[in-house]
Automatic annotation (TrEMBL), chain A:
This is C-type cytochrome, methanol metabolism-related. NCBIfam families: 4cys_cytochr. Gene3D superfamilies: Cytochrome c-like domain. Keywords: Heme, Iron, Metal-binding, Signal. InterPro entries: C-typ_cyt_methanol_metab-rel (IPR022411), Cyt_c-like_dom (IPR009056), Cyt_c-like_dom_sf (IPR036909). One of its GO terms (molecular function) is heme binding. Residues 47-151 form the Cytochrome c domain. Residues 1-34 form the signal peptide. The keyword DNA damage does not apply. Residues 155-171 have a biased composition (Basic and acidic residues). Residues 155-182 are annotated as: Disordered.
UniProtKB/TrEMBL annotation, chain B:
Ca(2+) binds at E193, N277, D319. Residues 1-22 form the signal peptide. This is Alcohol dehydrogenase (Cytochrome c). InterPro entries: PQQ_b-propeller_rpt, PQQ_MeOH/EtOH_DH, PQQ_rpt_dom, Quinoprotein_ADH-like_sf, Quinoprotein_DH_CS. PROSITE patterns: BACTERIAL_PQQ_2. One of its GO terms (cellular component) is outer membrane-bounded periplasmic space. The active site is at D319. SUPFAM superfamilies: Quinoprotein alcohol dehydrogenase-like (SSF50998). GO terms for molecular function: calcium ion binding; oxidoreductase activity, acting on CH-OH group of donors; pyrroloquinoline quinone binding. Keywords: Calcium, Disulfide bond, Metal-binding, Oxidoreductase, PQQ, Signal. Pyrroloquinoline quinone binds at E77, R131, T175. The keyword Ubl conjugation does not apply. Disulfide bonds join C125-C126.
Length: 182, 600
């Protein structure tokens, strides 16, 4: 557990540094960070954009990569009860499909891992600290790419109609992170 | 077990001598229709008032008399109390209590605001609702989100005692009201989505000292069962009735939470309530019947020992918590007077049982959409007597992990959730707020970490096939198990009903309407749009000779999650998105009490 937290913390710190740098470089060129994240490369069924951050892949029929699909499942199990179906928000937590138009990958990771409190104005809004929750953190890239796809309007509401098969690498990573099935 | 029971009895015997019975004050208060001293109005949870100034002929002229903002934005469940000339209003987290002077235009006499760690907020499933206060023996009882139970002096708001019932760091929280019974205060707990081993606890009403605690799952001395005397469907449950139905020590994270309503029969001296879902939502990970989750309990309030139990949904595969209210009525079945209890379960069946012994008399679907089970087996000689006959196609256990079971009705929020039904002894009918929503359910593997959610399934919810209405307000004959009339509602009805001797029934809607309908026909007689969606319960009282009807509005709760964004039908094909109007097009957040009366 501790190892796991440490690992995600150091990974986060590294990411943040790189993202800040990239933002500085890109700022002049693009102006905004809300560009659709086209997949530039892939490894074992996981897709990455030009900056090397995880992203989704959707084909013309609406079929998605496994990570995006898994992200839909985990989002719906772990985040929906506050953030609403399909990343659309609820009466007390923001629509993450909108949030990810601005929020960077690094800020996404740190918000989920560390949580956030907003106790002003008669509304106690608290984003829980999920850094130690394996059911979230073992699938955080999956959730990220799913929400990214939602915010880019690359996938619609509800379960994606079709998806790639579960890659072996994903299954190995799940077992390593969650502990082997009993 | 015997020894435990005897020692418990002697403990309570001591207490008996020392204290005035709370039930005297509650009994007196609830027999006086001018007051509303516990959330359900009366111990039998009928939510019926003898007041009849406002009735089916004049309710059309009813109008708001005064209103009060609670200053809190999140979902407002439960209702205010009226004790003498004071009204007590509660709020969701941070659980403020206001005492309002009815003799002085609702002026605030005192306000109590507990200091609670905001970290409890995200541990609460589905918004930070609280289902209200209870009054007994000069005290107002509040069970806070962080599980602190406080007794406030009803006149001054000063804390007379307080006790901590659970630990939010382990996922233990509270949304429920409490029930004062005799010299005890009965208190439940939430945390089914966090793998809590849930329980009901009795505290001494004068001191807050713990008297007994009965878990829903575990060994006999923890669930307070007497293997020879506690019965289920007429037979003794036997030794280790819960342990035998779990793999290993999974009962320790078994759920079976107790966040619903409690009723009490003073003549039988039995308390009734239901327990919630077993943890996790992935049924494959917890083989067995998972007793006594999803169960109706009848317990002796003095000792906590269970007289009888009935498990409605063995081995839950759909999150059909069994916590809904258990109103007690005396009606004729097949010409014979029976002491009954009635229960509209999340699983879509309306149950009628003999409350003296737990005999199952009626179990019928109260929403025709219900499809996960064909029926409840009523054949006494059958090995599956009393069990629902599950349809394989809708069994998430049968279809397995990582398989999406589609078109299951009702959805996890049930054909009805916590919002309580009302009963009118004049018509002999129940008035039931219902959900008409179905779901897809895909279970998958999860790992348990104390204090972290332990869910294990992905759900999609959408209106039941064949219409766009997501709710109905129905009248139900519990002696026959038949719907008498049904009023469709655009959204799920998430407000507790009130029936009165004026032959009218009140309820609220998610758009924010307070409605009054004819108790015999369901015909709409009055509606008024309050400032926000209603998930609170309607109550009534009389002050200075005049009848008032009051309700809290303030949308939120489970309903605020799915309905804020609108429910989309995943089977309608691509492009059909947004076919069902979002609740956010009708109402916005805000806690307000609205009080109605006839014009002078």
């Amino acid at each position: 557990m501790t190892d796991f937290a440490e690992h995600s913390k150091s990974r986060r710190a590294g990411k943040r540094r790189r993202v800040v740098l990239l933002l500085a470089l890109c700022a002049a060129a693009s102006g905004a960070g809300a560009e659709p994240r086209a997949a530039a490369s892939s490894q074992d069924g996981k897709y990455f954009d030009a900056e090397g951050e995880p992203t989704y892949k959707v084909d013309a029929s609406g079929k998605v990569d496994w990570y995006t699909y898994s992200g839909f499942l985990r989002y719906s199990a772990e985040c929906l009860r506050c953030h609403g179906p399909d990343g659309l928000g609820s009466s007390y937590a923001p629509a993450l499909a909108d949030s990810l138009k601005k929020l960077s990958y690094a800020d996404f990771l740190s918000t989920v891992a560390n949580g956030r409190k907003n106790l002003e104005g008669g509304q106690e809004k608290v984003m829980p600290t999920l850094g130690l929750d394996k059911n979230v953190m073992c699938f955080i890239d999956d959730i990220y790419v799913y929400l990214k796809a939602r915010s880019d309007e690359a996938v619609g509401r509800n379960r994606p109609p079709a998806h790639d098969p579960k890659p072996k690498a994903w299954e190995d990573a799940e077992n390593a992170c969650m502990g082997a099935p009993s | 077990m015997k020894r435990l029971v005897t020692s418990l009895i002697s403990v309570s015997a001591l207490a008996l001598n020392a204290t005035a019975f709370a039930n005297e004050s509650v009994m007196k208060g609830s027999q006086d229709p001018k007051q509303w001293v516990i959330q359900a109005g009366t111990y039998d949870n009928q939510r019926y008032s003898k007041l009849d100034q406002i009735n089916e002929t004049n309710v059309g002229k009813m109008a708001p008399a005064w209103s009060f903002s609670t200053g809190v934005l999140r979902g407002h469940e439960g209702s205010p109390l009226v004790v003498g000339d004071i009204m007590y209003v509660h709020t969701p987290f941070p659980n403020i209590v206001y005492a309002l002077d009815l003799n002085d235009e609702g002026k605030i006499i005192w306000k109590y605001e507990p200091k609670q760690d905001a970290n409890v907020v995200p541990v609460m499933c589905c918004d930070t609702v609280n289902r209200g206060l209870a009054y007994a023996n000069g005290k107002i009882f509040l069970h806070q989100a962080d599980t602190t139970v406080v007794a406030l002096d009803a006149k001054t708001g000063k804390v007379t005692w307080s006790v901590v019932n659970g630990d939010p760091k382990k996922g233990e929280t509270n949304t429920a009201t409490v029930l004062p019974v005799k010299d005890k205060l009965l208190v439940g707990i939430s945390g089914g989505e966090f793998g809590v081993q849930c329980h009901i606890t009795a505290y001494d009403i004068e001191s807050g000292k713990k008297v007994w605690r009965a878990y829903s799952t575990g060994p006999d001395d923890q669930i307070l069962f007497d293997p020879e005397k506690t019965t289920s469907l007429g037979k003794p449950v036997g030794k280790d009735s819960s342990l035998k139905t779990w793999q290993g020590d999974q009962w320790k994270t078994g759920g079976g939470c107790t966040w619903g309503w409690y009723s009490y029969d003073p003549n039988l001296n039995l308390v009734y309530y239901g327990s919630g879902n077993p943890s996790t939502w992935n049924p494959k990970q917890r083989p067995g019947d998972n007793k006594w989750s999803m169960t109706l309990f009848a317990r002796d309030p003095d000792t906590g020992v269970a007289k009888w139990v009935y498990q409605m949904t063995p081995h839950d595969e759909w999150d059909y918590d069994g916590v809904n209210e258990v109103p007690l009525v005396d009606q004729k079945i097949d010409g014979k007077d029976r002491k009954l209890l009635v229960h509209f379960d999340r699983n879509g069946f309306g149950y009628t049982l003999d409350r003296t012994n737990g005999e199952l008399l009626v179990a019928e679907k109260y929403d025709p959409a219900v499809n996960w089970a064909s029926k409840v087996d009523m054949d006494r000689s059958s090995p599956t007597y009393g069990r629902p006959l599950v349809v394989a196609k809708y069994s998430t256990e049968h279809n397995g992990e990582d398989e999406n079971s589609q078109g299951i009705c009702p959805a996890a929020l049930g054909s009805k959730d916590e919002q309580p039904a009302a009963f009118s002894p004049k018509t002999g009918l129940f008035y039931v707020p219902t959900n008409h929503v179905c779901m897809d359910y895909e279970p998958f593997r999860v790992s348990y970490t104390p204090g972290q959610p332990y869910v294990g399934a992905t759900l999609a919810m959408y209106p039941a096939p064949g219409g766009a209405n997501m709710g109905n307000f129905i009248a139900w004959d519990a002696t026959k198990g038949k719907i008498v009339w049904s009023d469709p509602e655009q959204f799920s009805v998430w407000s507790g009903a009130l029936a009165t001797a004026g032959d009218i029934v009140f309820y609220g809607t998610l758009e924010g309407y307070l409605k009054a309908v004819d108790a015999k026909t369901g015909k709409l007689l009055y509606k008024y749009k309050t400032p926000s969606g209603i998930i609170g319960n309607v109550m009534t009282y009389q002050h200075k000779g005049k009848q008032y009807v009051a309700v809290l509005s303030g949308v939120g709760g489970w309903a605020g999650i799915g309905l804020a964004a609108g429910l989309a039908d995943p089977h309608a094909g691509l492009g059909a998105v947004g076919g069902y109007a979002a609740l956010s097009n009708y109402t916005a957040l805000g806690g307000t009490l609205t009080v109605f009366a006839l014009p002078d």
